[in-house]
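Students often ask what a holo structure prediction actually looks like on paper. The answer is less mysterious than it sounds. You provide the chain, you provide the ligand, and the output is a string of discrete structure tokens encoding the 3D arrangement of the protein together with flavin-adenine dinucleotide.
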Amino acid sequence: MTRVHVIGAGMAGLSAATTLAARGCRVVLYEAAKWAGGRCRSYHDAALGCRIDNGNHLLLSGNRSTMAYLRRIGAEETLTGPSRPLFPFIDLISGDAWTLRLNRGRLPWWVLRRDWRVPGTDALDYLALRRLERAAVTDTVAGMLGGLGTLYDRLLEPLAIAALNTKPETASAAPLAAVVRESLARGGAATIPRMPKIGLSESLVDPALAFLRASGAELRFGARIAGLTMTDARVTGLVGPNVDEIVGSDERVILATPPWVAAELLPGLTVPDAHEAIINLHFRAGIDPGPAGFYGLIGGTAEWVFEKPEVVSVTISAANDRLEQETDRLAAEVWSDLRRGFGLPRAMPPWRVVKEKRATFAATPEQLARRPGSSTRLVNLRLAGDYTATGLPSTIEGAIRSGESAAQHI
Ligand SMILES: Cc1cc2nc3c(=O)[nH]c(=O)nc-3n(C[C@H](O)[C@H](O)[C@H](O)COP(=O)(O)OP(=O)(O)OC[C@H]3O[C@@H](n4cnc5c(N)ncnc54)[C@H](O)[C@@H]3O)c2cc1C
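The corresponding structure tokens follow.
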């Protein structure tokens, strides 16, 4: 049985490992940390006294690779969300609240219903979305869609920031077009918001580890790979503080680390090297979950707020310019938005700020041009990760698809 060494147990590595294990390959998974999940994980927070996710992650029903992954690891039932395609919003400046609703089919007749679309927009405004069909990598989101007034301010800008984690003035419209092609353009049925019922690890990580263990895979935690030994043509060994492994002549390697580690391990590899932060704030409080369990916020510091089992979690995307801000001031600023939007008390409950400095690579035209494909100059080495050239932005769906396709090429 072919042995495949998968380096990195984030979404890309778990996707590759489970695809291979499902096909009967012998998988050895090496993870530097003591836990799996990478940028998508849950953990116990001592200050809050409960489990939290490192950051809110929103999926869509049209994320086909993610849904296939969940089916493979038996975790389909661990997601939740509204049963229909709807997105509630609150405008903190005007005080308006509305719920964007889509119909399930491909023909978007929902735009004809005034009470389903964004208040202040016209059915014809939505036709402008078709511009995305001809988006080139060098087109920016603001350049293509910025002139759309209310539709842009109240829908397209927050969606673009959520999908690309990059300010629309510099973000390329091409990966946004890819997201729209795989969701909205396929109709509301492909655009139903999905998120974990309990936590990211409970849905996307722990069931994958259980699946791998049951398949006989070898899981090595605390196993950082610090170097690859290689000939001109192939990888012959993996080395690290706790690893000294020979890669046999019929064996393969999938490198599923973040881009900066991949570039260190494989000299000469070009990868995206500019990143954007995401800041999440978790408050030990509760809000009315509304029809979806989350809300888009317009005109505030944060863009999205999620009602979680034990906390209210708020996301600030494309947050490089907020990294230096003191956490208590940031928490107070966001709490004030939450008070305005949800009528919460003045006293701030226990809170935690989680700053993920390199949450995603910056989805600018320059950075997109640096994405490598999956194959490498070494015949037995493939790359996987959200930074590889999937056409999608740096997302769970991109990471999972990259792992699946690296595995399929083995
Ligand atoms: C706060 C936040 C919010 C987000 N929100 C969303 C969202 O709403 N929707 C969405 O789809 N996506 C979202 N994302 C993006 C998504 O989490 C990532 O795109 C995805 O998790 C990346 O997976 P990956 O496997 O490519 O990389 P990683 O998660 O970085 O995994 C790489 C793994 O490799 C390990 N590793 C590193 N070096 C070594 C080494 N030398 N040896 C062995 N192992 C090593 C790491 O420890 C890690 O486990 C968000 C990300 C963050 C941080």
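The first helix runs from residue 11 to 22.
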